[in-house]
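Much of what follows relies on a compact textual record of a protein's fold. A record is reproduced here so that you can trace the correspondence yourselves:
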Amino acid sequence: MWTLQHVDCYDQAVQDEEDTAGGVILAHSMGLGKSLQTIAFLHTFHAYWPGKRSLLLVPSNVLHNWVDEFQRWLPKGRSEDDNELTPNKVGNNNDDDDDDDDDNDDNNAHVWSGQTASVLIISYDMFSRLKTHAVDAMLRDTGNVPTEKRLDVLQALMAKRAFDILCDEAEIVVADEGHQIKNPTTKRFAAVNSLRTRRRIALTGYPLQNNLDEYYTMIRWCGDDVLGEVAYFHDTFAKPIQEGQASGSTRKQVQHMYKQLSVLQDMTESFVHRIGPEQLLKDLPAKHEHVVLVCLDAAQQRMYQAYLDVTNQYRRDILMDTFLLHLISHRPKEALERLENLAEGGVVDIEAGGRLLALHAP
């Protein structure tokens, strides 16, 4: 990572030459310490280059895990030196916050921007929303805005300011579960590709041949055009490899698959570092997984039955309420508190169909 990021601790000219920087993919299987390697790398980077900031893009469901990892591994008990990455310099944009809280996003971006040797952790979804709001702000006519729309315009402008700060000031960007960028046509790719820096690190545990389209997108995001355009990559690598993996493939197709896999690995070995699970086989005992089924208790059953009654009465699509059902089964106390608040005439936020809705008591 250090070499391919083109960081020279002693040559400022190399540091200032942004065009020489490049991206890498750390493709290590789960359990091989990608998180610790990333934290150690960022701590070392900021020690030699303290005037810069780093951005960490993560899936929403692991954001808090990353916060905990930084708190666990970064040095503690030292004075707050501007030249060192410390736990207090690790911020995060929490997806649990209100989707429309652009004021908070803007504040977090400014706090991060005002600190040297700092890291901001933000989810892909949050970063994509900032991009969407930023585009919306650019398309709006701010010169003649009705009074009722001024708040929307202000929020869009604040989101654009936060997005611009993150894109312009991040010197190194780490994309956890980098395969989730998916493909170049998605809003997520457009958002992460808006980042100015070429120092990009994608983390993934997926084998190269599992999803070639996602690997192609990661490589393209890292800034390397070695694989050519999408059509060329699909015809030269993706198609023959997929044909060789098919259950009814011929011997010739399998041989061609292995040949193209070998060529692909040779072309990417300079910036893709792959270590498989076999690395741990000699050191760890065999893995056993146990699935424990737990029945709903009496309170959960009553809440669930009440939900089914309402669903049947109003013919509501059960798939719209996965978040509420998740609360009933996994966090029944919180589900009960929200329902009691609704019964008392309050407002309850629930997720429906991927959107955050506010329910009001009738």
Q: What stands out?
A: Confidence is low (pLDDT under 50) at residues 6-17, 350-362. The first strand starts at residue 24 and ends at 28.
